[in-house]
Amino acid sequence: MKFFLSELFILSSFSSFSQNLLVNGGFEDENICTEFHVNCAPEGWISTADTYNNFYKIPGLAHSGQHCVAIEAGHSKKQYMRTYIRSQLLCRLRKGNKYRIEFYAKSRHAILDSAGIYFTAYDFLFEKQLHYRIIPTLYVANAMRRPLKADTNWQKISIEYTATGKELYLTLGNFSKRDLTGATGIPLEDHFFIFFDDISLTPEDPNEKICDDWQRTKQDIY
Predict the structure, then answer these.
(1) 202 forms bridges with which residues in the sheet?
(2) In this structure, what is the dihedral angle of CA atoms 107, 111, 114, 115, given to the nearest 10 degrees?
(3) What 3-state DSSP class applies to 48?
(4) pLDDT at position 86
């Protein structure tokens, strides 16, 4: 009976307007690396580099919960050194419908404006073009409230997006055409990091229902 009630609650929550089309947006569900028997990555999200090194569980660092992820936006000594994180959507977005993308981001550097969101119909891990030449679907600078460059705390990013109907994957990263160069200003640190947490993608239309095969897709993602 308890199991039935929990399943009923999940189903009812996914049929409501607050449904999140991204899994594990807070990165709290951890994937176990069988080779090392350690928690090495957030379930449902994959990095173009070593996910373990960009998956943080440091007290007080996350916006909420215990985990957050980081992408490398640049490197002091390596040209165009960048990493990206991506996740598959539970449902393909519906052409012409509006969606709300929200997340929290922070950086020790004034580089949030160059962070972007890239929707694709294919897995970004198989992207063939040079990453720094990609024009993202949206820049963080397109947010309703542009992030403050001098603010190194968590900042909420909220963007409205009209779907083309081809969106199956979402990728986050630095999509600036210019490379980050010079010292980071942090002792013994050569990476320029941007941190992300509490990511959601929800329909603006409260009557939009989730697709019929979302449960099967979620199982595949996990």
Answers:
(1) 100
(2) -10
(3) coil
(4) 95
CA triple 172-174-175, angle to 5 deg: 100
> Which residue is listed with tokens 């595949």?
220
Amino acid letter at 54?
A: N
- Reading across the β-sheet that carries 46-47, which strands appear in turn? 46-47, 85-88, 169-174, 115-120, 138-139
Max CA-CA distance within the chain? 60
Which ranges of 17-57 would DSSP assign to H, the alpha helix?
none
CA 217 to CA 89: how far, in whole Å? Answer: 8
Domains belonging to the chain, first-starting first, are: 2-221 (2.60.120.260)
Res. 13 pLDDT band, cuts 50 70 90 = very low
Look up residue 195 and give its two tokens. Answer: 């941190």
Structure token pair of residue 7: 């399943």
CA distance 201 to 203: 7
Chain segment 50-62, per-residue pLDDT in tens: 666 788 888 899 9
For residue 50, give the 3-state DSSP assignment.
coil
Which amino acid type is present at position 214?
W
Rounded to two decimals, the pTM is: 0.88
Judge residue 5's burial from the number of C-beta atoms within 10 Å of its C-beta, 0-12 exposed, 13-18 middle, 19 or more buried.
exposed
Mean pLDDT, all residues of the chain: 88
Question: Residue ranges of the alpha helices (H) in the chain?
Answer: 2-14, 214-221
What pLDDT is attached to residue 37? 44
Q: How far apart are CA 52 and CA 54, in angstroms?
A: 5
